Amino acid sequence: MPETIIHNTTEAPSSASAETSLLLAFTRLEGKVDVALTQHGADIKATAKEVDDHEDRIRALEARPTVSPRGLWATVSGAALLALAVIPFLDRIIN
Fold first, then answer.
1. Three-class SS of residue 71?
2. Which residues contact residue 21 at a Cβ distance below 8 angstroms, ignoring those fewer than 6 apart?
3. Is the distance from CB of 21 to CB of 28 less than 8 angstroms?
4. Is the dihedral of CA 57, 63, 69, 72 positive or negative?
5. DSSP label of 20
6. Per-residue pLDDT tens over the stretch 25-47
7. What is the pTM of this model?
8. Taking the CA of residue 31 as centre, how many other CA atoms within 13 Å lie in the half-sphere pointing to its CB?
9. C-alpha to C-alpha distance for 94 and 16, rounded to whole angstroms
10. Could you give the CA distance from residue 64 to residue 83 in angstroms, rounded to a whole number?
11. What is the DSSP letter of 64?
12. Residues 50, 58: contact at Cβ < 8 Å?
């Protein structure tokens, strides 16, 4: 009858087996780091694209002529004063 070899699972692994386990763990860790760095690089590129897009839109808004609230109030109050000044003359002309 052939001899059956039974391995005891509680004994320390051999150095070759431990080295293989460590190399496998390091390889897995390296793969995960590579994936994380690739995703991070993609995120940075997407963010840079968004920032460039924001820069373009902000520059377009800044270049567009707008009316400031001060100018708007000056125009409205000027028109009101002009109307008040013209009313007596129109009253003389009509009556």
1. helix
2. 13
3. no
4. negative
5. H
6. 999 999 999 999 999 988 888 88
7. 0.39
8. 6
9. 114
10. 31
11. S
12. no
